Amino acid sequence: YRQLQEFQCNYASEYETILAERRKMLDASSLDDRSLSEQGIPHFWLTVLKNVDSFDYAVQRRDELCLQHLLDVRCLINPQGFALEFHFHPSNPFFPEKILTKFYFVRIEF
Questions:
Q1: E-assigned strands of the chain?
Q2: d(CA 10, CA 55)
Q3: pLDDT tens figures, 37-89
Q4: Residues 6+ apart with CB under 8 A from 25
Q5: Per residue in 8-26, is it b (16+ CB within 10 Å) or e — as a string?
Q6: Chain-wide mean pLDDT for the chain?
Q7: Residue 15 CA: distances (Å) to CA of 10, 11, 22, 56, 76
C-alpha cells in the first residue's frame, strides 16, 4: 500500500490537469460554446453518488436536497492519507460553508 500511496502523490498534479478539464465541462459558466449546453451537467455529483454501488450508505431523499448544490468533489492525496473536499454552490441554504472537508488517515500495519 505504501508504494501505491507514493505513486498517487507523485502523479497528483498530472491528475489535476484532467480533473480541471472535467470541472470546466460540468460548469456551464465556463463553456465558450453555448450550443454545447446552457446548464453544464445538472446535478452531476448527485447522480454519481446515487449510482455508486460500493457505498454502504445509500443517498436518501433528505440528502438529495443538499447534494443538488454540490459542484465538485476533490481528493487531495498526501503521504499520511487523503482528504475529500466537497465544494458547494454559494447559494446552498443548508450550511454556510462552501467547502466541507473529510480527512482520512491511513495507517499501514505489517
A1: 70-78, 81-88, 99-105
A2: 27
A3: 456 788 888 998 888 877 677 888 888 999 999 999 998 888 788 899 999 99
A4: 31, 40, 41
A5: eeeeeeeeeeeeeeeeeeb
A6: 80
A7: 10, 6, 11, 27, 11
| Structural contact between residues 104 and 82, judged by C-beta atoms closer than 8 angstroms | yes
Q: Which residue type sits at 68?
A: Q
Place of cell 453518488: 49
Residue 71 contacts residue 85 (beta carbons within 8 Å): no
Overall residue count recorded for the chain in this entry: 110
pLDDT tens, position by position, 23-35: 887 775 544 554 4
Q: Which amino acid is at 5?
A: Q
Find, among 48, 40, 106, the residue nearest to 73 by Cα: 48
User: According to the model, what pLDDT value does residue 101 have?
Assistant: 96
Prediction pTM value: 0.71
Greater pLDDT, 12 or 51: 51
